[in-house]
DNA sequence: ACCTCGACCTGCAAGC
DNA sequence: TGCTTGCAGGTCGAGG
């Protein structure tokens, strides 16, 4: 379930298992993810020390002492599992593998980190850190919504002149990083803005932000922060017995709540669903203008 | 250059 | 019970 908050939660869950440790052994059990794993994938990882785990948009970045960066994306159905200390035998560890466990990292600290992805829309790739600014997958990605550079001025400038809908603009990773179908719906609802509204209407003719742009920036920040906080608590308190990461409880306002009462204060509306750019949009026509 | 849509995959729930 | 259909949190790349 990977939009920015989920990926950030995964990053925080993986950090204690990976940072400072080396890849003792890497198993590429199934290399045909979104793109094939490079043939030197295992060789370039094994023996390398992990200096740190980062995130850019919905990508996880693993910085290696070699100067390589392991770039990973969860696609639609990717998740990680952190196994307990691998003091048991290799064969015991193997016996716990399940269907769709495509890549397994045996870390030098005994932790077992397993990537599972039924639909295989996820990906892993090795890039050179010195050339990461040239990486095509990252090059065009817009500002981090929780970073300092993201504000109403930026968002309005990115949306100015756009003929497409506000929701489609939020899903465009070049406009702002890390928002997916759920948090686009959630942020628009919190900001009381219609997903159908033309994106350019959050800016004036010169591209300067109006009140809508400001409300949307605040809403985006709020829903993402809340979701990360929920993920963090889930990581601490409700972590599944098998250590799965990337899957936790949400309390959505409108997403997947078709027919339910609108949660906005004082609104008597009902949550509706319709298809927009091939994807489900959930919203309240009564309070989202 | 912008925008929309198909394609990539598997699993699951709902309907008949 | 079994079959079919539609839908799922992403995003690249083709084509208009």
Please provide a written account of the structure.
- The protein has 289 residues and is α+β, with helices and mostly antiparallel strands.
- The chain folds into two domains: 4-134, N-terminal domain of MutM-like DNA repair proteins (Alpha-Beta Barrel), CATH 3.20.190; 152-283, Helicase, Ruva Protein, domain 3 (Orthogonal Bundle).
- Helix content is 28%, strand content 21%.
- The protein is built from eight helices and eleven strands.
- The strands form three sheets. Strands 1-6-7-5-9 form a five-stranded antiparallel β-sheet. It has a four-stranded antiparallel β-sheet with strand order 2-3-4-8. The protein has a two-stranded antiparallel ribbon with strand order 10-11.
- Strand 2 and strand 3 (59-64) form a beta hairpin.
- Helix 7 packs across helix 8 (211-237).
- The longest helix has 27 residues, at 211-237.
- The radius of gyration is 20 Å and the shape is globular.
- The two termini are 28 Å apart.
- The model has no long low-confidence stretch (mean pLDDT 92).
- The structure holds a DNA duplex (16 and 16 nucleotides).
For the structure shown, list the relevant keywords:
8 helices; single chain; 4-stranded antiparallel beta sheet; Helicase, Ruva Protein, domain 3; 5-stranded antiparallel beta sheet; 2 domains; N-terminal domain of MutM-like DNA repair proteins; 289 residues; alpha+beta; globular; DNA-binding
């Amino acid at each position: 379930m990977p939009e920015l908050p989920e990926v950030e939660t995964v990053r925080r869950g993986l950090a204690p298992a990976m940072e400072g440790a080396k890849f003792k052994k890497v198993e590429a059990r199934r290399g045909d993810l979104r793109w094939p794993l490079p043939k030197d994938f295992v060789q370039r990882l094994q023996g390398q020390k992990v200096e740190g785990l980062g995130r850019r948009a919905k990508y996880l970045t693993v910085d290696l002492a070699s100067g390589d960066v392991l770039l990973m994306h969860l696609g639609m159905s990717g998740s990680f599992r952190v196994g307990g200390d691998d003091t048991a035998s290799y064969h015991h560890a193997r016996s716990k593998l399940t269907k769709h466990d495509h890549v397994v990292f045996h870390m030098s600290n005994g932790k077992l980190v397993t990537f599972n992805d039924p639909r295989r829309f996820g990906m892993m790739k090795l890039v050179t850190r010195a050339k990461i600014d040239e990486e095509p997958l990252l090059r065009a990605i817009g500002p981090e919504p929780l970073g300092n550079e993201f504000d109403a001025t930026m968002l309005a400038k990115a949306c100015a002149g756009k003929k497409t809908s506000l929701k489609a603009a939020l899903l465009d990773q070049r406009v702002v990083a890390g928002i997916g179908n759920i948090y686009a719906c959630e942020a628009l609802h919190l900001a009381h803005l219609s997903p159908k509204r033309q994106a350019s209407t959050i800016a004036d003719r010169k591209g300067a932000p109006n009140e809508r742009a400001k409300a949307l920036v605040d809403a985006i920040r709020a829903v993402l922060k809340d979701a990360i906080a929920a993920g963090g608590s889930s990581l601490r308190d409700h972590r599944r017995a098998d250590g799965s990461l990337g899957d936790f409880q949400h309390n959505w306002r409108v997403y997947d709540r078709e027919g339910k009462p609108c949660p906005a204060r004082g609104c008597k509306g009902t949550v509706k669903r319709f298809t927009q750019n091939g994807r489900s949009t959930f919203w309240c026509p009564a309070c989202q203008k």
